[in-house]
Amino acid sequence: MIDYINKILEYNLLDCYNRILIVTVLCLIFPSLYYLYIKCKHFTSFSKVTPKRTNIIHENNVNTIIEENSFTKDDENFDISSCGGFIPYLRKLHANQGAHVLSSKLPPNTISIVDPIVIKAILSIGDRPIDLFKFLEPFLGVDNIQILDANRAASFRKLIQPALGHDVIVAKYQSLRNIGVEFIERWEKLIMNDKDSVIKMQEECLELALRIILEAVISIDDPKDLDAKSYRKSYDIALSSLYDKQYGILDTLCEEELQQAIDYLHSLTGKLIDQRRKKLLEINDAEKIKEKDLFDILISENDPITEKPFTDEAIISNLSAFIMAGYHSTGIIIPYTLLALSQNNDVQIKLQEEIDKTLGGRLPTFDDLSKMEYLTQVVKESLRVHPPGSFCARLIKSETTLPTMVESKNITIPANTTILYANPLYNENPDFHPQPEKFDPTRFSSDKIKNIKPNTYCPFGFGARICPGERLAMSDIKMVICLIVQKFNVELAMELKDIIKVERFAIMSKNDILIRLLPRVKNY
Ligand code: HEM
Ligand SMILES: *[C@@H]1O[C@H](CO)[C@@H](O)[C@H](O)[C@H]1NC(C)=O
Ligand SMILES: *[C@@H]1O[C@H](CO)[C@@H](O)[C@H](O)[C@H]1NC(C)=O
Ligand SMILES: *[C@@H]1O[C@H](CO)[C@@H](O)[C@H](O)[C@H]1NC(C)=O
């Protein structure tokens, strides 16, 4: 138990020589960690030679002054590699300086904030630092939702919001659940053949999550039209290669592979667009589709910005952006939740009791999922302890003065500053979450949830650019966890010390998460 706790709080990451290999895949919604890694490296070695005072905080009033190079001796001796990643590096910087607002040893014009009052004050700010996302342009186009400025993002989000809302999820629930059941049956078969089978849950759940997100945003009638395995392979090649490419470390062979992968994904989506256009034309006005999914909206409605229909290019790029955002994030939190259950047997038993009491052995309906409060609490607690998104970023375009947690102290943030919100630093802070090392789903129970201060728990981000897929993600995760623990007891089939988190687009597990599923003897 203690091992488990130490493990999750202290990222046990890899040595610096492997970084280029590790920090590959996927960053869209979350700023590129690799980008920050490179920037910080240059910046910290630079600042060692040329000490200077930062002007980040500079109001005449009672404001906080943050000085660079006012480090303790210890500060000289660590960088991102020696800490094992950007998040542990940030953690150490904040701890060493006792600072809620941190600007030293970060890239230029960047501050990291662990202060819910500052965050509250920037909820309405909807701009992101687009340079962090630039490397994805060849895949996503220059203009996808992630990098739209605040105004354009707001009008686009308004248009597509219904596609990720309650009614569409309910309409699709049956087919989403079928995908979950397919995986359960696959694992059952595996265990039947060999009861000692160990399941690579991260690998499996990534595939599962891709299938689910494709069903949720595109919905293919004929499975032959979209081969999820090839699609997944191409997606992963495209993203990891783009990552490498921006630093010129992609060789010609990979360059070709990258282009092939992008071409494959784009042409496949192009074909699907033609099919869906035809299908929508066939449906006459009288029986207009009631619940438009994202694909339907992009095909049948006007782009709110140009007020003309979306071009194929715009549809492809924006669809790709949504799939990318929902794929690894949803895929990794399911195995992390199983990991937590395997280490907290009381929680697992209590969850199974709720499931048995509610379902008595049948499959969960959509309504069942909202009725099972403990299930929701378990998933929320798992997102606190294992947030898939390591941080969110906002761009402050013009000079802004903001209140802070420290009463009567304001901070002034200069124009063109990137604010980082590192999820783990909030989630593990005992001021915000008492006994943060304890996996305790009941912190989210209806009587205790009010103790959680606003903006100290944001696995889906916050404010104007909060994740638009939160509702969909929550019901997918709850559904899959419910299907699994209804049928099986879960056990970790590897040593806890080998669970090593690595920073990628989402925080992944380097050695996968190996789980043994033990069929339950049911007693309802
Ligand atoms: C466990 C699952 C998920 C997690 C933890 C997660 C987390 C996040 C976070 C932290 C952000 C950044 C928010 C901010 O900057 O304040 C984000 C943005 C986004 N997410 Fe998710 N997400 C998940 C699932 C999904 C799903 C299933 C979809 C799609 C259907 C999705 C679509 C998006 C999009 C499009 C954005 C960008 C929104 C914008 O720029 O306005 N996410 N997500
Ligand atoms: C804003 O900051 C970024 C990141 O440091 C820098 O590249 C860019 O030149 C700055 N832009 C302006 C207008 O100062
Ligand atoms: C994605 O959608 C936005 C919002 O409507 C649109 O302005 C943009 O052109 C689209 N993306 C691309 C690459 O065309
Ligand atoms: C902090 O800023 C607020 C609003 O910007 C202002 O009303 C207040 O007087 C400031 N407080 C201090 C101590 O500067």
From TrEMBL:
<comment type="similarity">
    <text>Belongs to the cytochrome P450 family.</text>
</comment>
<dbReference type="InterPro" id="IPR050196">
    <property type="entry name" value="Cytochrome_P450_Monoox"/>
</dbReference>
<dbReference type="GO" id="GO:0005506">
    <property type="term" value="F:iron ion binding"/>
</dbReference>
<feature type="transmembrane region" description="Helical">
    <location>
        <begin position="20"/>
        <end position="38"/>
    </location>
</feature>
<feature type="binding site" description="axial binding residue">
    <location>
        <position position="467"/>
    </location>
    <ligand>
        <name>heme</name>
    </ligand>
</feature>
<dbReference type="GO" id="GO:0004497">
    <property type="term" value="F:monooxygenase activity"/>
</dbReference>
<keyword id="KW-0408">Iron</keyword>
<dbReference type="InterPro" id="IPR036396">
    <property type="entry name" value="Cyt_P450_sf"/>
</dbReference>
<keyword id="KW-1133">Transmembrane helix</keyword>
<dbReference type="InterPro" id="IPR001128">
    <property type="entry name" value="Cyt_P450"/>
</dbReference>
<keyword id="KW-0503">Monooxygenase</keyword>
<keyword id="KW-0812">Transmembrane</keyword>
<protein>
    <submittedName>
        <fullName>Cytochrome P450</fullName>
    </submittedName>
</protein>
<dbReference type="GO" id="GO:0016705">
    <property type="term" value="F:oxidoreductase activity, acting on paired donors, with incorporation or reduction of molecular oxygen"/>
</dbReference>
<keyword id="KW-0560">Oxidoreductase</keyword>
<keyword id="KW-0472">Membrane</keyword>
<keyword id="KW-0479">Metal-binding</keyword>
<dbReference type="Pfam" id="PF00067">
    <property type="entry name" value="p450"/>
</dbReference>
<keyword id="KW-0349">Heme</keyword>
<dbReference type="GO" id="GO:0020037">
    <property type="term" value="F:heme binding"/>
</dbReference>
<dbReference type="InterPro" id="IPR017972">
    <property type="entry name" value="Cyt_P450_CS"/>
</dbReference>
<dbReference type="InterPro" id="IPR002401">
    <property type="entry name" value="Cyt_P450_E_grp-I"/>
</dbReference>
